[in-house]
Amino acid sequence: MEYNSQLIEKKWQNYWAEHKSFEPSEDFTKEKKYILSMFPFPSGRLHMGHVRNYSISDAFARFHRQLGKNVLHPIGFDSFGMPAENAAIKNNANPKTWTYDNIDYMKGEFKSLGFSFSKTRELATSDELYTKFEQGFIIDMFENGLLYREKGLLNWCPHDKTVLANEQVVDGCCWRCDTPIVKKDMNQYYFKITKYADELLDSLKKLDGGWPKQVLTMQENWIGKSNGLEFDLFFDENSLSILDNEFKSFDVFTTRPDTIYGVSYTALAPEHPIVNYMIDNNLLNHDGKGLDRIFQIRKMKDTSSIDRQKVKVGVPLGLDVIHPLTGKKVPVWIANFVLMDYGSGAVMAVPAHDDRDFDFAKKYNLEINAVINPKEGEHDFTTSAFTDAGVLFNSAEFDGLNSKKSQYNIIKYFEENKIGQKTTNYKLKDWGVSRQRYWGAPIPFVHCDSCGLVMEKKENLPIALPAHVEITGEGNPLDKHPTWKYCKCPKCGIDAIRETDTMDTFVESSWYFLRFCASEVNWEKEAFSKEQIKYWMGVDQYIGGIEHAILHLLYARFFTKVFRDLGYIDFDEPFDNLLTQGMVLKDGAKMSKSKGNTVDPDAIIQKYGADTARLFILFAAPPTQELEWNDNAVEGAYKFIKRFNDRSSNIVKTDTIPLIEHTTLSKDEKYARKKVYEALVRANEVYNEKYTFNTLIAGSMEAMNALNSQNNSDVWSEGFWILSSILEPIIPHVCWEISSENFSLNNLSSQKVLDEVFVEDSITLGVSINGKRRCEIEVAVDESKENIISLAKEKAGKWLEGKEIIKEIFVPKKLVNLVVKG
Ligand code: ANZ
Ligand code: ZN
Fold first, then answer.
1. Hey, whose CA ends up nearest to atom 10 of ligand 1?
2. What's the DSSP call for residue 690?
3. Fewer beta carbons under 10 A from the terminal one: N or C of the chain?
4. Residue 307 pLDDT level (bands cut at 50, 70, 90)
5. Ligand nearest to the CA of 488
6. Could you tell me the CATH superfamily of domain 631-758?
7. Does domain 231-425 have CATH number 3.90.740.10?
8. Best of 225, 354, 368 to mutate for ligand 1, by most ligand atoms within 8 A of CB?
9. Contact 110, 54 (CB under 8 A)
10. How far is the CA of 486 from the centre of ligand 2 (A)?
């Protein structure tokens, strides 16, 4: 039949929907495969990045289904979040209506792409049922001390009018709208992720091999564990009296105690409490300029942390501390590169051995005291810092020791004299989850005048959003809602006020993969059951963008460990294998609406069909690399599918693979079989651990060409049986069409790789004259040297006429070279 993508694709999509072809079974004795792609935000339409993501996961899912495994390949929508509210402001739409309309449209797109998602487990995180279970978990976490409310300096985006997590601040600006953020002191809820810092770090080891190295490193750096020495620096008499004895000392953290004799100044973060105290009490011994500078520096941080790293700016405070080992006075500065939220917000500065300290010292003419020499050679301390480990000098009793040994000894000295201790610091901060927005899951707490902060009762869940709300873009719509926040205290029953903060949407994506383990049996009743989790988790293959390499994956790992500790599950890493797909580019740039270089998936499906889109995407590049859109290659993919469809007319209809007597076949027939079986071997590697769909497709194309060069209908039929099975995960519609017409459905579970087809009984040798390749001969594998050479002479006769052969060179299985004269 003529290839008609529209007809074939609609037909099979409806068939799959009607027959619920892709529902996993609850038979937990079967071998399982959990294939998951990161779920989309319902922005309105799918983009090519989505199509790539789901084409990859669908290929895995369909392959394992063919092998007879119980496959879970679910999809949902990460449907809370600001864009729904922004659309509401812009188009005067209701965020819920906007969201669910988009979801409907995108589900249609999923169908038209032929993705084999389970339909019964579809979810949107804004569904009230999902909110109900999530709020239950939040309450459990609160009861177990993993959630707390605290005042803190928060990043505030004046444009979006919301608090941002540190990670959502990029170079001092809001990650979404690029507006410079400002600091605001506010109450908010935090998850105690720092409690799990060590475990989050240590168990990365378990993921080695299954996750890309790059992602493991990003996670490790984000957690940012460092060991060092923490100690107090005490003010001298004069400074104590300036500070009215309000502060006697401050704490510093160093990873390089071996450099301690090289300290020539100390520096506080501009937001340090001592600085605040001095500002508030007018204690800065300056003409006012110092104060201005401090405010300038603080502003610098707010607008660009990059500036803050590059340009070094500081202000002397007119205070001195006493060096704990030498007893000498050391001046105290404010420095822009010291961060308030790391360590103790103060550093001992060693310009000779630290780059930032060096730049600062040069700028402000501070002492540079070298105390460590390289193990070999010399270092010029007037031009740069020496930051490596080395050998100590000018360091009293520690002279001559190497860095490592002296670090140990110096920490020991501090600890024995009770003037400091060994400490571990983490870059990781607790996860602030409050958002002052409407379109999110309400945080299920109540503020009561007599009881304080009270949890909602579980039987009152979900605390759902009010359906009607006015969204103006100013402030928190829930806070301004006329009725919603007024309630009774769940504990004492008096009038109380509901918490109006909603949760960071990263909370929803931290456990959705667990929710997918629930089935129709218990979907409404509970989030998931222990048995379901035990069977389906961990996710065998997780696929998504590298942009989620840090936060989403870290939070999902954190939730998994928390759920383990709460007794819901009994493992601690959710994703066994992770594939981060590359970006989709056009004209060398990432496809984006603002650049105007997007390709609309719907248009491609209209013109060529979903199979073509999927084939192109998986053929054009290995999934982990960038993919450049190419219209000609799309056309090429279409032609291949059309040819594949047309040639299927050579198949002899059958219910079993024809039995073929391999030794009786002609050379071309044997070659075709060999190519087909090579593709089969490759399919197993690619779908299991190599991911290079492009090589599998290339191999299948070769096999098609080889089939084309022979006429044996049994070889055709067998070849198509195998090729339509291994290509089904990639171009499912046409493959279901071909196999339903000709044989029972694709099924690789009984497909054996036949060794006989790889046995070579003849080989091709090149024949060269004076090193120049002239022709080829075909000989039996075990042919004798004499016969081969005489055959070569015969075949190369016309180049040998009138010439004398002076040497015959024979390289077994490779070539014959005849050296001639005349
Ligand atoms: C003295 C020193 C000498 C340092 C030297 C380094 C080299 P990591 O590895 O990232 O943990 N530091 C400490 N707290 C800081 C803060 N709040 N803001 C900016 N810098 C801070 O870095 C630890 C090192 O960073 C510490 O060790 C401290 O400088 C600095 F030759 O102390 B070091
Ligand atoms: Zn109360």
1. 226
2. I
3. C
4. very low
5. 2
6. Isoleucyl-tRNA Synthetase; Domain 1 (1.10.730.10)
7. yes
8. 354
9. yes
10. 13
CA–CA gap between residue 249 and residue 233 (Å, rounded):
5
Task: Indicate the top mutation candidate among 231, 347, 350, 423 to test ligand 1's pocket, ranked by most ligand atoms within 8 A of CB.
Answer: 347
- The H or E element that residue 618 is part of is helix 610-619
Ligand 2 centre and the CA of 448: distance in Å? Answer: 5
Rounded to whole angstroms, how far apart are CA atoms 339 and 360? 15
Helix, coil or strand: residue 396: helix
The Å distance, Cα 351 to ligand 1 centre, comes to: 12
Cα(188) to centroid(ligand 1), Å: 29
173 C-alpha vs ligand 1 centroid, how far in Å?
A: 25
Which ligand number lies closest to the CA of residue 447?
2
> Which pLDDT value is given to residue 303?
43
pLDDT in tens, 136-162: 999 999 999 999 999 977 888 888 787
Q: Report helix angle 5-19 to 95-112, nearest 10.
A: 110
Judged against a pLDDT cut of 90, whether residue 350 lies above it is answered with yes
Please compute the mean of the pLDDT values over residues 778-799 and round it to a whole number. Answer: 88
Strand, helix or coil at 563? helix
Per-residue tokens: 216: 């493991």
Which ligand 1 atom sits nearest the alpha carbon of residue 387?
A: 31
What's the confidence (pLDDT) of residue 510? 98
| Ligand closest in space to the Cα of 448 | 2
CA distance 460 to 445: 11
Q: Which residue has the higher pLDDT, 248 or 648?
A: 248
Length of the chain: 822
* Ligand 1 lining (C-beta closer than 6 Å): 226, 253-256, 259, 337-339, 342-343, 345, 347-348, 350, 353-354, 425
Asked if the bond preceding 732 is cis, omega within 30° of 0, the reply is no
Residue 308 pLDDT > 50: no
Which residue out of 223, 229, 255 has the highest number of ligand 1 atoms within 8 Å of its CB and is therefore the one to mutate? Answer: 255
φ/ψ (deg, to 5) at 391: -115, 135
Ligand having the closest approach to the CA of 257: 1
- What is the rounded distance in angstroms from the CA atom of residue 296 to the CA atom of residue 286? 15
The answer to whether the beta carbons of residues 254 and 425 sit under 8 Å apart is: no
Give the distance (Å) from ligand 2 centre to CA of residue 146: 22
Atom 9 (ligand 1) nearest CA? 226
**Beta strands at 584-586 and 589-590: parallel, antiparallel or unpaired:** antiparallel
Q: Where are the beta strands (DSSP E) in 168-264?
A: 169-170, 173-174, 182-191, 225-235, 249-254
**Alpha helices, H only, 439-529:** 477-480, 512-515
Atom of ligand 1 nearest to the CA of 340: 17
Residue 746 DSSP one-character state: P
Q: What is the pLDDT of residues 427-444, one digit of tens each?
A: 999 999 998 889 999 999
Distance 495 CA to ligand 2 centre (A): 8
**Mutation pick for ligand 1 pocket among 253, 260, 334, 428 (CB with most ligand atoms within 8 Å):** 253
Q: Domain residue spans in the chain?
A: 231-425, 631-758, 762-821
Distance CA 312, CA 332 (A): 15
Indicate the residue type of 85.
E
End-to-end CA distance of the chain: 61
261-301: pLDDT as tens digits:
999 999 999 889 999 999 889 888 766 677 777 777 776 65
Query: Ligand 2 centre from 185 Cα, in Å?
Result: 26
CATH class of this structure's domain 762-821: alpha beta
**pLDDT at residue 54 tops 70:** yes
Q: How far is CA 55 from the centre of its chain?
A: 17
Ligand at minimal distance from the CA of 230 is: 1
